[in-house]
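Example record

One chain of 336 residues, shown exactly as stored in the release files.
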Amino acid sequence: MAEIALAIGTSHTPLLSFGAEHWERYSRRDLSNSRLNLSDGRWISYENLLAETGGKFADVATFEQFQRKSALCQAALDRLANELEAAAPDVVVIVTDDQGELFHQTNLPAISIFYGDEVATMPRANVPHMRHTAKEPFFEIMAAAYAMDKVHRFPGKADFARELIERLIDKDIDIGAAAAIEDPEKAGLGHGVGFVVKRLFKGKQIPVIPVLLNTYYPPNAPTASRCFAIGQALRAAIEESPSKLRVALVASGGLSHFVVDEDLDMRVLQAMGDGRGAELKALTKGALNSGSSEIRNWILVAGAIENMKKRWCEYQALYRQAAGTGIGVAFGAWGN
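Predicted structure tokens for this chain:
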């Protein structure tokens, strides 16, 4: 039967795609953000957030700290790349979210698996809500790190992906399915897949199967409990396969953003590390809004690896403005 040989988690924020010298310019957008998500479900402006926090994060939102944190994050990514290389998987299943790259408001499934023979990314400059940043000095670096500077094509694993879809349907998981990309200049796979391939594969052509969650967009984002259950079903579908594939499972995205919530992030990571699925399933919708919604990707993977041992996990709170905006990033590996 197939087996999950390795599971890893990685954030994929743009801050990981370019050096610390661009962090301050990238973070200027925070200052004009009128709709920042808090983990209690509230939405708040930067000005009001600054009033609430008293600007207490100014001392850690400095270029010196940006440099230090960037180096730590890149070392963790190198470690993940080494873990993946050592596992020598036959296929990598990437659980991530789609942000207007493949799916749009005309068709937005709660969850879908791509089962084409080839996976194609779309240029990031063509993603409608990303066009306003195309002239930023860091944009080309970021787009290349996401394999979205142009159309990139990676091998898929159509037969196994279709098998997973069929097995999930048999387990009462109403999974969406996509098998082709007609014009990758207009719609294709995005940053959640491209970052993993570009940063962690060391140039190897490993077949990938994207599992795409709608984490960002109401009204059909799945609950934390549902994500965990889908993960459990995914593990069973993998293990029931008669193929003898070594599968690597990747959670791509998260954790809390665009306001850092270290308490929320640590609760997620500790629950994953200790196999406390009940705590993950109990996370409220209010804690999973906007960027923090990508925690759902980790919860799905947690359901698939609830009996696997944590090898290591690292966390960095990347505060980028005095009010506490930024992102909590995490990197970890699980295996038997």
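Notes: The chain has a mean pLDDT of 96.
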